[in-house]
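An instance noted here:
***
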Amino acid sequence: MKFMKRRGLRMFAVAAFLPAIATGALAQSGRITIPQRSAITMSAEETATVQQVTQLVRDFLAAVPKGEKQTFDNFFADDVIYTRSTGVTVAKADIIKNIGVRATNEPQATFEADDFTVHPYGGMAVVNFRLIMHNIVDGKQTTSYFRNTGTFLWRNKKWQVVAWQATKVPPAAETK
């Protein structure tokens, strides 16, 4: 019985401190957040991965409005799993097929990103960021926000996305 009480107290303490720990770990200052690991410093290779993958996302988003197949072909791996903000999962062939559709539906859309968090894991990196989409709808400038999480894999001497999740941020929470 004593064991159960002590165990229950330990579980309560862990549960009570999780929000504080998470808040500190997720606090973001600046445009790129390098994960804080207790007493472990990031190696030069990990720092380089953070910079490379972040720049890869920025370059991709800048090139998206041009609608060039090669841009998408280089960014996404052949075996990518992409979950759109609508909850629909698509493969690379679907992404490539929809390049022209997106250009027709959103001909003046431009994209940028901020609030990056990158976790490097050797030949893999997990990236989270806020995607900002600027568009003109009915002659009016609109801005939409998405939270994206992607998994990059170092393969064939380049980084490519093997998994991607896009979530539309509700209008009330867009500026948070």
